[in-house]
């Protein structure tokens, strides 16, 4: 059975995505399957965030980790508007907190596999959270000419989940002129620029998505990538991440 999704991205009027249920061959997108997705909620206006930003930079070098930096907007009032800040990212952090029965959010915070949040600047706490981290699904990415095949196998022991496309900048250098980090020049990595849902992963059948790479503008060669995440949703709130893969231009 084949399903067709229309993906509306900010940089496109439309992007056609063909979603077919499991079975097509695929190849791993990285030397080792990812075992952890680390999402850092950070801000250029937060004085406690640079150590966490540096830690994420080092995590991004690991083949078994998908590192993503979400810049929130709730620090903008202090005198510096984060150049990557987005209310949608602040809302994602709030949604995580709500899913855990909390109303408290803070920066820097790292969320591991959508299941556990820790202070992002505390290296020991981050390492402890990652020590037993595992992703039950392998998301394989394989390029075929101008198309990228995303293959996710079935697993009847898991519940159905959403498939997300998360675009990011591999690196961004920012000179901060005001706020708590005034005067600093920061090197950021894996900076999320937008998120779009691709469709559903069904536990009984798995999924294959074909993405036309020619429709994804490469305005900054060597500096653009995206992650494909499979994530449970509970009552409209983000749950555990089941699998992840990345592709960089």
Walk me through this protein's architecture.
- With 249 residues, the protein is mainly beta.
- 13% of the residues lie in helices and 43% in strands.
- The chain is built from 3 helices and 13 strands; from the N terminus they run βββαβαββαβββββββ.
- The strands form 3 sheets. Strands 1-2-11-8-7 form a 5-stranded antiparallel β-sheet, with no helix packed on it.
- β7 and β8 form a beta hairpin.
- The protein is globular, with a radius of gyration of 18 Å.
Any descriptors?
single chain; 249 residues; mainly beta; 5-stranded antiparallel β-sheet; 4-stranded mixed β-sheet; disordered N terminus
Write a concise synopsis of the structure shown.
The protein is mostly beta strands and about 250 residues long. It has helices at about 50-60, 85-100, 125-130; strands at about 1-5, 15-20, 35-40, 65-70, 110, 115-120, 140-145, 145-150, 160-175, 185-200, 205-210, 225-235, 235-249.
Unreliable segments of 5+ consecutive residues: 1-31
* Helix count, DSSP H or I runs of 4 or more residues: 3
Q: What's the main sheet like?
A: 5 strands, antiparallel
Q: How would you classify the helix and strand content by structural class?
A: mainly beta
| Count of extended strands | 13
Distance between the ends: 31 Å
Range of helix content: 10-25%
The global form is globular
Radius of gyration in whole Å, from Cα?
18 Å
Mean pLDDT across every amino acid position: 87
Strand content: 35-45%
* Strands in their spatial order, largest beta sheet: 1-2-11-8-7
Order of helices and strands: EEEHEHEEHEEEEEEE
């Amino acid at each position: 059975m084949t399903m067709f999704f229309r993906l509306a991205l900010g940089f496109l009027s439309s992007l056609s995505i063909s979603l077919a249920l499991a079975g097509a061959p695929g190849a791993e997108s990285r030397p080792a399957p990812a075992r952890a997705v680390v999402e850092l909620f950070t801000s250029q206006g937060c004085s406690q965030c640079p150590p966490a930003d540096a830690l994420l930079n080092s995590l991004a070098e690991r083949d078994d980790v998908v590192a993503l930096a979400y810049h929130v907007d709730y620090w903008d009032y202090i005198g510096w508007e984060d150049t990557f800040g987005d209310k949608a990212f602040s809302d994602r952090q709030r949604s995580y907190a709500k899913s855990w029965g909390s109303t408290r959010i803070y920066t820097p915070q790292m969320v591991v596999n959508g299941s556990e949040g820790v202070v992002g600047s505390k290296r020991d706490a981050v390492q402890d959270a990652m020590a037993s981290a595992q992703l039950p699904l392998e998301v394989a990415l394989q390029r075929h000419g101008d198309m990228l095949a995303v293959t996710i196998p079935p697993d009847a022991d898991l519940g159905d989940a959403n498939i997300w496309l998360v675009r990011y900048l591999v690196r961004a250098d920012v000179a901060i002129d005001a706020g708590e980090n005034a005067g600093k020049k920061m090197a950021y990595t894996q900076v999320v620029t937008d998120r779009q849902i691709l469709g559903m992963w069904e536990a009984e059948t798995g999924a294959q998505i074909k993405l036309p790479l020619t429709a994804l503008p490469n305005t900054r060669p060597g500096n653009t990538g995206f992650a494909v995440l499979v994530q449970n949703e509970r009552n409209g709130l983000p749950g555990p991440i089941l699998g992840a893969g990345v592709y960089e231009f």
